[in-house]
Amino acid sequence: MKKLSFFSFIVFFVLFSNLALFAQKGKDSTDAETLNEVVVNATRAKETSGMAFSNVSQKEIKKQNLGQDLPFLLNQMPSVVVSSDAGAGVGYTGIRIRGTDPTRINVTLNGIPYNDSESQGVYWVNMPDFASSVQSIQIQRGVGTSTNGAGAFGGSINVNTLQLNREAFGEVNVSAGSFNTVKANFLASTGLLNDKFVFDARLSKIESDGFVDRASSNLQSYYLSGGYYLKNSFLRFNAFSGHEKTYQSWNGIPEALAKGDAAGLDAFIERNYYDENFKKQILEAGRKFNFYNYENEVDDYKQDNYQLITSWKLNKNWRFNPTLHYTKGQGFYEQFKYGEDLEDYNMKPVIVGETVISETDLIRRRWLDNDFYGAVWSLDYEGEGKIKGNLGGGWNQYLGNHFGEVIWSKFASESSIRHKYYENESVKTDFNIYGKLYYTLSSKLDSYLDIQFRNVNFETKGSLDPYQTFNSSNNYAFFNPKLGLNYVINNSASAYMSYAKGSKEPSRQDFVDNPTSLPKAEHLNDFEGGLKLKKGNWVGEIGLYNMMYKDQLVLTGKVNLTGEAIRTNVEKSYRRGVELQISGKLSEKFSVAANATFSQNKIAEFTEVVPSYDETPEEVNMLTHTDISFSPNVIMGGSLNFLPIKTLEISLLPKYVGSQFLDNTSSGARKLDAFFVNDLRLGFTPKTKLFKELNFSLLINNIFNHEYESNGYTYSYLYGGKITENFVFPQAGINFLTGMRLRF
User: Fold this and answer.
1) Is 31 exposed, middle or buried (0-12, 13-18, 19+ CB in 10 A)?
2) I want to staple 324 with a disulfide (CB 3.0 to 4.6 A). Which of 36, 102, 308, 573 is the partner?
3) Nearest 10 degrees: Cα torsion 150, 464, 328, 337
């Protein structure tokens, strides 16, 4: 019945949209380019919001877009740290903002929520080369403004693809580089036909072997968009899809191998009962080692996205922007498993003569088949007086089916191919409504008020394996107020301050990984303030933040069987810091941009439990004022740009990330070392009459060949003493990408 009512709403929505659009004919003209921005403006921060944010233009994205995933294109933004499982920025990549992991970063595409509803993470590998269709990106740090989808606890990434191309064009981008990385795409637009219609298209293909052995990626995607524009309104339909097939490299490598610690590596091999053949393999591969060697140890997933976006002007001051969306995802990851217990797969032991065989080698696939659909909207008021505002919200529903299959077994008992050994279904419904008010108190002082109500219902039932049932029903209601002030000191300076409350439900995986202790919803009070300065060609900003958490779900440093981080609630914790930014021209040929974040990220009280696998009792350690995992106290980035001639730009891109703890114990034996990496980028755009644009690019990453790791995990246990295992994800040494863009 839920699907029926939703699709009935779709029919009504489409009919009403078209009637409203045609009713606009003959009315006063509005600049069509501005119409695309109004759809995302309701969820974006403004200068008068009092929030910390950065905008990234299409021009800046193009400079860096040679095949790496979107997080790597944002690497130089304030408080950002990126990582790649395969080590070179293609495949599974991640991004953290102010130390918070991707499940805390709200991502919207044209105002539509993109985070996976269950895990709340964002898998950029499912949308390869999406950056080639992006018009602009806004990164909000902290809670930020109210938006659609999961709550933002570290930041928001608001992506806009709605670009109106008035002129027809075709464009080819080709790039190639280290690790057999190749990217090719084709873009085209009809331009605005009869001042009303436009059609855009992109087709992309990316392949890479990855820095890590066998960590290959085979990615393909398309983007299609058709728009119908009237003088004050438009209707746009977007369809885009990504299909990824990546060889798994989720395990990282032992820390001893990354550091060249021969004694530590020997101890690791001995206590984990690996043989001489394994030792030979790991020493030969070195930092490129991959635990997996089964030929089809892959993650294979396809995701199709559909968006129906409209905007129409109701009268002089009011505009309505409703949007419908639907996403279909389906895929699996395949694994070869040695010596598995047949009963763990709901299979009976095999009897051969008088021998009972209870273990077998097998190949399994774990599937996810899901549907995500809903509607988001905003009603915008743009008055000529002191008041402006937005009323908006959304209703979204997720249907997920998790199940596992055994596709081959050395000893199969009575089972057949594609034997299903677990199945779990879930439904998640997310409703939110928000109101935003911008009020000019005086010629120098602007105020901002934002109130959001969000209701989430999550139900799941079934099994995770033959021994663990997973039935759960949880409902959450959140009230999230936000307010801000912006004061114009003079023509060169302004100051801002804001308060924002964020609330967020646990993810599905939090319930799975903590079956005996139900996770709690988490809450955040975020206080921000800053000073913005502008003098001539120079722009600067000093921002302060104090993010105070209740029941924050923090990373334990451990990972589950699929490589996802395991989290636990802590009653009180905080992130406090200062963010510095400056950019400007040193001369006609030199310009510079720099940012730095200095922070403290602490947990008031944390209980470490070390399990025991011998006769000794488990170890319980009570820790106070300890550091939050994966939260470096220092993050710095920027660029130094040199234009020897108008058609050539040379940029040095430095990035420094301080040391990070792998868990919440502040133990020096469980941390990632600080790293300082420099990239070099060249862009050459010669003048030509043959083409609309011709550009050549060269990106040399890690030019000083620094060995570093930007992600990892740890776990400890008791077995004849306390043993700690650290695993890290090594990033590539010096490597390059070169590309050509041709527009005609």
Assistant:
1) exposed
2) 308
3) 120
Which residue, chain included where needed, has tokens 């990330």? Answer: 657
Angle between helices 262-271 and 276-285 (to 10 degrees): 140
18, two tokens = 């078209």
List, as one string, the DSSP characters of 546-608.
EEEEEEEEEEEEEE-TTSPEEEEEEEEEEEEEEEEEEEEESSSSEEEEEEEEEEEEEEEEEEE
Q: Which residues have C-beta within 8 Å of that of residue 744, sequence separation ≥ 6?
A: 169, 170, 171, 691, 692
Angstrom distance (rounded) from CA 680 to CA 650 = 7
Q: Which residues of 62-99 are buried (b: 16+ CB within 10 A; e: fewer)?
A: bbbbbbbbbbbbbbbbbbbbbbbbbbbbbbbbbbbbbb
Inter-residue contact 523 to 548 (CB < 8 Å): no
Phi, psi of 477 (to 5 degrees): -125, 125
pLDDT value of position 223: 98
What domains lie within the chain, and their CATH numbers?
2-252+290-468+477-743 (2.40.170.20)
The residues, ordered by sequence, that sit 6+ positions from 407 with a Cβ below 8 Å of its Cβ are 334, 363, 364, 365, 417, 418
**What local confidence, expressed as pLDDT, does residue 154 receive?**
83
Evaluate whether 525 touches 176 at the Cβ level (below 8 Å): no
Rounded to whole angstroms, the Cα distance separating 508 from 137 reads: 28
Name the pLDDT band for 558 (thresholds 50, 70, 90). Answer: low
CA distance 68 to 117: 25
End-to-end CA distance of the chain: 50
What is the rounded CA–CA span in Å between residue 718 and residue 44? 50
Provide, for the chain, the percentages of residues in helix, strand and coil under a 3-state DSSP scheme, each rounded to the nearest 5.
Answer: 15, 55, 30
More confident residue, 429 or 151: 429
Dist CA 197 CA 237 (whole Å): 12
Nearest to 501 by CA among 521, 517, 531, 518: 521
Farthest-apart Cα atoms in the chain, separation:
92
Q: Which helix (H) or strand (E) holds 270?
A: helix 262-271
Q: Which residues of 254-263 are buried (b: 16+ CB within 10 A; e: fewer)?
A: bbbbbbeeee
Q: Which two tokens stand for residue 301?
A: 């997933």
Q: What is the pTM of this model?
A: 0.92
Tokens found for residue 403:
């199940």
* Whether the predicted pLDDT of 411 surpasses 70: yes
Structure tokens at 58: 């299409």
DSSP annotation of 674 reads P
Pick the closest to residue 553 from 522, 578, 507, 583 (CA basis).
522
Tokens encoding 744? 């005609």
Instruction: Report the C-alpha gap between 21 and 221 in whole angstroms.
Output: 31
Residue 45: other Cβ atoms inside 10 A: 26
Place of tokens 């600049």: 31
| Whole-Å CA distances, 293 to 237, 278, 336, 435 | 43, 11, 9, 53
542 Ramachandran zone, left/alpha/beta (phi>0; psi -120 to 50): beta
Neighbour-count burial for 601-618, b at 16+ CB within 10 Å, e otherwise: bbbeebebeeeeeeeeee
Helix (H) or strand (E) run with residue 723 in it: strand 722-730
- Chain centroid to Cα 343, Å, comes to 37
Residue type present at position 518: L
Strand partners, 155: 105, 141
Q: What secondary structure letter does DSSP report for 162? A: -
Distance between CA atoms of 145 and 684, rounded to whole angstroms? 38
Q: Which two tokens stand for residue 463?
A: 């099994």
